[in-house]
Amino acid sequence: MAATHLGLATGDKTLRFEAYKHQRDAIIMLQQLIQDPYQADEDPTLATVMMMQVSARLFGDEEEAHAANHLTGAKAMIARRRARMGSQKSPNEQFLASLFAYHDILSSVSRGSSPLDIHDVDFDAIEGSPSMKGIAMVLQVVARVSQFQQKAKAERLLSNQSDLQGDNFLLGAQLQQSLNDLVFDIPMNDSEARNISLTAEAYRQAAFIYLYRVWFDMGAPNPTTVKHVKECIACIEQVPVDSPLASSHTWPLFTAGCETSDATQRQFVQDRFLAMYNSRQFPSLKRVLRDVEDVWAAKDAEQVMGGMKLDCIQVILQRRGREVDLA
């Protein structure tokens, strides 16, 4: 993974070849570990699977859209560990479990389906860091929205109506209240804590946008969505692009960016993704920007036709035949 990144950053093709060899060796070693009953579920094995997941997301080519999703394997490992050891976790296990939860939840948004696993009390902080609890709290709600999406789809399919009724409508209201209850104070004197709080708030605003898309089947230019788009972008704008936290802004920036029709906001989204790419050299960032631009083109065409129903994720699934790399 490091060799791939360095090869991309420097343009050195020999490093790209070395990266391929390292990846091949890692796959061979992983296959051996998985076949060993004593090593199959140990930390190094799970860490290798998660590194492959991260590498595929950050550095995978467009043509790799149908590559194996390593999250399925990671979920099986975590389930076996949970059955064997219960909820007790070492710091290493907490880190790996939180990394899996982060990718699983955001992948559920991109898939338009429920997360592979249930993430509640076991997922209380990003990468096991107490300072990241706020972001994890938002993502717990996002996971519930993804689960809610399945129920909403089923009801709309049966009723042939957009408006949800009864328990499903109440569930949407409960999720909205859960997001309203999350309040993040933005400190002024501690830059790191400020960036964390701004990131958590950007996630919260993006979660509102996601919820309203699922609950009410609506997006911009609805005034409620426009408000959350504006606030989400305002939070991201205040975090320096070279902050480590900016690497986690892909989902909120994609979510708010796809919904906006404002020229100034769209320009910021483009500039921000390009600045993130220039700072990090992750090909996924350019790919997500292309996805946002695809959504804009589809939404602009839809507005000309007098509609406002397009779902951003569905646009990419239909046009590209793959998920959006949100994690």
Keywords:
327 residues, mainly alpha
Q: Tell me about the biggest sheet?
A: none
Structural class: mainly alpha
Rg value: 20 Å
Helix percentage: 55-70%
* N to C succession of SSEs: HHHHHHHHHHHHH
How far the N terminus sits from the C terminus, by CA atoms, comes to: 16 Å
Instruction: Quote the average pLDDT.
Output: 86
Strand content: under 5%
Helical segment count: 13
Low-confidence stretches: none
Q: Report the oligomer.
A: single chain
**What is the molecular shape?**
globular
Topology:
Elements: H1 2-10, H2 13-35, H3 43-59, H4 70-85, H5 91-111, H6 133-159, H7 166-181, H8 191-215, H9 223-237, H10 250-259, H11 263-280, H12 283-304, H13 312-320
Helix pairs in contact: 1-2, 3-4, 3-5, 4-5, 5-6, 6-7, 6-8, 7-8, 8-9, 8-10, 9-10, 10-11, 10-12, 11-12, 12-13
Structure description:
The chain is mainly alpha-helical and 327 residues long. Helix content is 70%, strand content 0%. It contains 13 helices and no strands. The protein starts with a helix and ends in a 7-residue tail after the last helix. The mean pLDDT is 86. GO terms for molecular function: DNA-binding transcription factor activity; transcription cis-regulatory region binding. Its main location: nucleus. Pfam families: Fungal_trans_2. It is found in: Nucleus. One of its GO terms (biological process) is positive regulation of transcription by RNA polymerase II.
Describe what is shown at a glance.
Helix content is 70%, strand content 0%. The protein is mainly α and 327 residues long.
